[in-house]
Input
Amino acid sequence: MNNPFLEEYKRRNLRACQLKQLSILEEIDSICKQHDIPYWLDGGTLLGAVRHQGFIPWDDDIDIAMRAEDLQRFVRIAPGELNKNLFLQTKESDPAHKEPIIKVRDLNSLYIENGDDFNATYQKGLFVDIFPFIDYPDIPRAWVRFLTRSISVSYSILGKAHYYSFRAFAEFFWFGFKYIACQSIWHMISFCRPKKTFISNIPINNGYGIMHRKDSLFPLNEITFEGKTFPAPHNPDLYLKDLYANYMNIPPEEKRKIHAVYIHPELIKS
Output
């Protein structure tokens, strides 16, 4: 049921949310530049940079990506260099956090998404998502779509809260088998096939089976986002077509939704 007061509250706080997320991105950018860690704007953030020169007007998150090996370096370095109000959220630093996405969270805020669990103790502040990218084997896109979707959906279902029922029991075994089987096939193909042409998010995060040509991503370029310059794919047009096809088309108004269920950009006034 839609609550017009809550929707208006989110609209009024959206810009403050975006600006705080932009400040997190600037902090990440500073660390990456200092330690020569390549990254780039990804997803809706790159789309916003190209189409709106900043945030998509109704968007309330920031997405960036790094090669998996560069992200490992960032995870080692960042905790010692982030401002004290920022927190690098991983499965190790925040064990209650189950998502396979590393986030830099602002502790002085609250951001609630669909599926968030208030009984869980993981941090729930505003964030920037950091996606790990890996080289993909040179195989047909249809194979990639089937395998990555199967892995992603199975992982998601296995990771959600389950209650005692026959359906939960059946799901556990069916999706557990499917996850292990598809992961095994993926690893075997990745070992046997060359990986010269394509790159993308790790299969767990790649439910749509997206693949980017490496020459559309590297060498990295620069793009303006909210009046500031950040790294971007070499060919943003081709990269965004992989993600969204006709990405310059503005969606109808009823689909311009803020992702969050609730946003509180600042808990304690600084």
Notes: Residues 29 and 230 are 8 Å apart (CA to CA). The mean pLDDT is 93.
